[in-house]
Amino acid sequence: MGHPGLLGPQASVSEEGVTLIDGYPWFSPEALALTRKAAGEAVCLVDAGEPERFDVLPLLVAADGAIHELGMNLRRLPRGSS
Q1: Average pLDDT per block of 10 residues along the chain, 82 residues long
Q2: What does pTM read for this prediction?
Q3: Integer angstrom CA distances of residue 8 from 35, 61, 68
Q4: DSSP secondary-structure letter at 27?
Q5: Burial of 21 (0-12, 13-18, 19+ CB in 10 A)
Q6: Both ends of the chain: CA-CA distance in Å?
């Protein structure tokens, strides 16, 4: 099932290098609420650090299946807001 609502929130980077979601720091309750509303279901925001295999964008939306296909273990990713 797709989540076209996730195309709405805008990601950017602050002058301090913090990833923003619609102007809110990615780890804020506001960013989490916006992301959950866009996804239409429960989500968590996770800081994946500086992985080598991801895009150059500051925000990655990945489903459990995509993380599995990349050969990563979801339980080993650093936890962000949930």
Answers
A1: 77 87 93 90 75 55 75 67 45
A2: 0.56
A3: 9, 13, 25
A4: T
A5: buried
A6: 21
